[in-house]
UniProtKB/TrEMBL annotation:
Family annotation (PANTHER family): LEUCINE AMINOPEPTIDASE-RELATED (PTHR11963), PEPTIDASE B (PTHR11963:SF20)
Name of the protein described by the UniProt record: M17 family metallopeptidase
Species the sequence originates in: Novosphingobium aquiterrae
Record has Cell membrane as a keyword: no
Record's keyword annotation contains Manganese: yes
CDD domains, per the entry: Peptidase_M17
Origin: domain of life: Bacteria
Domain Cytosol aminopeptidase: 308-315
InterPro entries listed in its UniProt record: Leucine_aapep/pepB, Macro_dom-like, Peptidase_M17_C, Peptidase_M17_N_1
Length: 460
């Protein structure tokens, strides 16, 4: 990706190409201000002020841009994203007004995952100038958090296994002087038995681990961020078909979200005591893989009968959530690419949100809407607890039918979250199957900015 810090700069009256934002209601009035050659150029390009459309007009010795937006008085995060993708490299400014949330799309629209490409970008960056200098750093930080999620998710599993995920977390911990701890080997088997069981079949190169980061004043409110770090999911002995494995490099998308959100918390120095937890594993197949019918111990003390080895994400999260509860946080947020059922219910664009408290759900939904990062609440319904019953253990890891899969998975996690704790669970896809302005096909952050908005509102 182009250096994000070069993409938005303070407007000090530098030479720049003008961008005129026009909605359908203002198009006629705008056309009246144009010269005859400009009107002819606009007509030739059939510009009708549709969202994400644009036209190039002559402007003195140079040229300017006319861009269509849905509502000039209420800009979205993506209103400038298409321009950032298609305009020639150069320096631009809006002819009037503030880019507002459009700064986000201007940066994310220039994201490229080029780690494995030998060809470089064909042109340089598109730079946007703004007088709203105080908005630059927060916009860049959020865009960088999204880019981090995209980079981690887009990286293939061989180069983004548990060890590499640990390295990424350690780099962020060092940058912010956070305490860092990794539990592996025998200590993992004793302390986080479900994490160990899920990851033990992987090669030593991809050995399982529990990654923890602590940051902030212990006197401040305690919050925990937990992310599912299944770096590749074969399904285990209940093996996935090849088509189901094709995108499983993204099964650590929850960890990527939690790590990016933790970095935002530390960058902005929120007044919290932060605890980040990432159970990092590969759900592989070998002679010592955990089996259907096995009963696993858990850190919480609950026994879990394995009905499906492909329902492994909830197992590693269970141990991590139990560890989070030991420090008595007032808020726990977890992210996980947990169920296909959530995608059937709400599709790829909307992360499914589960919360214990109505007010937390309302605040998260509102923050998501405000940040153009919408999420959708699904029920944490006690009636579905029966779907997790086991004949020989405290609970099973998979429902016995095909009903309410996302809610049943959330109810499993609920058993490992401390009683009375304010808890939010995101079942996110972490992937875009088709490109949209500012949101290329591939790994993406879905629910990240909603959660960040809630944390800022409560602790900023």
């Amino acid at each position: 990706m182009t250096d994000k810090n070069a993409l938005i700069q303070p407007d000090r009256d530098q030479t720049a190409i003008a961008i005129h934002l026009i909605d359908k209601g203002g198009l006629d009035a705008f056309v009246k201000t144009l010269s005859a050659p400009q009107r002819s150029a606009l007509e030739a390009q059939k510009f009708a002020a549709d969202g994400f459309s644009h036209a190039i007009l002559p402007d003195g010795d140079g040229w300017c841009v006319v861009a269509g937006v849905a509502n000039k008085d209420s800009l979205s995060s993506w209103c400038l994203a298409r321009l950032a993708e298609v305009l020639p490299a150069g320096t631009y400014r809006l002819s009037s007004g503030d880019p507002g949330p459009g700064l986000h799309g201007w940066v994310t629209g220039q994201y490229r995952f080029d780690r494995y490409r030998s060809d470089s970008e064909p042109d340089g960056p598109r730079v946007l100038l703004t007088k709203a200098v105080k908005a630059i750093e927060p916009a860049l930080a959020e865009a960088a958090a999204v880019a981090l999620v995209r980079d981690l998710v887009n990286t293939p599993a061989e180069d983004m296994g548990p060890a590499q995920l640990e390295q990424e977390a350690q780099l962020i911990a060092k940058a912010h002087h956070a305490e860092f701890k990794v539990t592996t080997g025998d200590a993992l088997e004793r302390g986080f038995p479900m994490v160990h069981a899920v990851g033990r079949a992987a090669s030593r190169h991809h050995a399982p681990r529990l990654i923890e980061l602590h940051w902030g004043d212990p006197k401040h409110p305690k919050i925990a961020l937990v992310g599912k770090g299944v770096c590749f999911d074969s399904g285990g002995l209940d093996i996935k078909p090849s088509s189901g494995m094709l995108l499983m490099k993204k099964d650590m998308g929850g960890a990527a979200h939690a790590l990016a959100l933790a970095r935002l918390v530390m960058q902005h120095k929120l007044k919290v005591r932060l605890h980040l937890l990432i159970p990092a594993v590969e759900n592989a197949i070998s002679g010592n893989a955990f089996r259907p019918g096995d009963v696993l111990r858990s850190r919480k003390g609950l026994s879990v009968e394995i009905g499906n080895t492909d329902a492994e994400g909830r197992l590693v999260l269970g141990d991590a959530l139990a560890r989070a509860g030991e420090e008595e946080p007032e808020l726990v947020i977890d992210f996980a690419t947990l169920t296909g059922a959530a995608r059937v219910a709400v599709g790829p664009d909307l992360p499914a949100l589960f919360t214990r408290r109505d007010e937390t759900a309302a605040q998260m939904l509102a923050c998501g809407t405000a940040a153009d990062d919408p999420c959708w609440r699904l029920p944490l319904y006690d009636g579905y607890k029966d779907y997790l019953k086991s004949d020989i253990a405290d609970l099973g890891n998979a429902g016995g039918n095909g009903f309410a899969g996302a809610s049943v998975a959330a109810m499993f996690l609920d058993r490992f979250v401390s009683e009375g704790v304010d808890w939010a669970h995101f079942d996110t896809f972490a992937w875009r199957p088709a490109a949209k302005p500012g949101r290329p096909k591939g790994g993406d952050a879905l629910g990240l900015r909603a959660a960040w908005g809630l944390l800022k509102a409560r602790y900023g």
